């Protein structure tokens, strides 16, 4: 089960730190928010600190206590290592009284370092829950960019539920005529407890 991955990682890092330099200290920080048991998923963050390295992980926990990894940031000397990090940034601007809010979402993965000349095709799908004419729908935006601007109609106290799918076909230099499919995805939530069914697509 995926929950065991957390236990394995913790054990691995602890054993590694003991075998290497006793003066180097591993610090494990876990953030378990207040649970809303009516929701399908709880979002927690796990941080590992060792010497000048900080690793931040966002994990979805199911009611069965399975863990689903969503995004992570690796820092070295306080600077993010983009070659090893996968994350998104969501920004919603406006007031609760505004009829339309302005949203921006940007995301990054290690595959962003691949030159555009090597990408045969790319399709980014951004879906988010939206209230239109008293009905809740998932609105979709299609693009090939890492930054997306959108209009947002607030429906539940400024909360947000969404999903990003990024598919790229990449040319392989060593095998002419062949393509590598890179599949990258994120569940997007603004609250620590969620019913975001797109989380299942992360498995």
Automatic annotation (TrEMBL):
Domain of life: Bacteria
Protein name: Lipoprotein
Organism encoding this protein: Antarcticibacterium arcticum
């Amino acid at each position: 089960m995926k929950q065991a991955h957390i236990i394995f990682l913790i054990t691995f890092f602890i054993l590694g730190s003991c075998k290497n330099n006793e003066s180097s200290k591993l610090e494990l920080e876990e953030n378990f928010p207040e649970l809303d048991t009516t929701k399908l998923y709880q979002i927690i963050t796990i941080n590992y600190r060792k010497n000048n390295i900080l690793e931040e992980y966002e994990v979805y926990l199911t009611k069965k206590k399975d863990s689903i990894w969503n995004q992570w940031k690796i820092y070295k000397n306080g600077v993010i290592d983009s070659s090893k990090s996968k994350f998104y940034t969501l920004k919603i601007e406006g007031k609760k009284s505004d009829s339309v809010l302005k949203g921006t979402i940007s995301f990054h993965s290690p595959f962003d370092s691949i030159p555009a000349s090597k990408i045969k095709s790319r399709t980014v799908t951004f879906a988010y829950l939206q209230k239109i004419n008293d009905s809740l729908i998932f609105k979709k935006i299609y693009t090939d960019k890492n930054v997306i601007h959108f209009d947002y109609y607030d429906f539940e106290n400024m909360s947000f539920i969404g999903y990003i799918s990024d598919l790229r076909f990449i040319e392989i230099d060593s095998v002419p005529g062949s393509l590598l499919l890179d599949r990258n995805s994120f569940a997007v939530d603004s609250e620590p407890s969620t019913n975001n069914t797109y989380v299942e697509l992360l498995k």
